[in-house]
Design goal:
Elements: H1 6-18, H2 25-64
């Protein structure tokens, strides 16, 4: 593996960082809101699945218990 000196490394890093396309404030806000909405929907879904499984198990155990 070829080694570069620290000065060349810093130059390469700076040139790569210039290529980065940073998101706008609006894009960050929309993405954040979508993450919170999807996390909430996922939590609700799993809570309902948990309630259904619990109810089913209680019904089965009530029959055999």
């Amino acid at each position: 593996m070829a080694q570069t000196n620290p000065f060349q490394f810093i130059q390469q890093v700076r040139s790569e960082v210039r290529k980065v396309v940073w998101p706008t404030r609006r894009e960050v806000l929309l993405t954040t809101v979508m993450v919170f909405i999807l996390a909430t929907l996922t939590a609700i879904f799993f809570a309902l699945v948990d309630l259904a499984i619990r109810g089913g198990l209680q019904a089965v155990l009530g029959i055999f218990g």
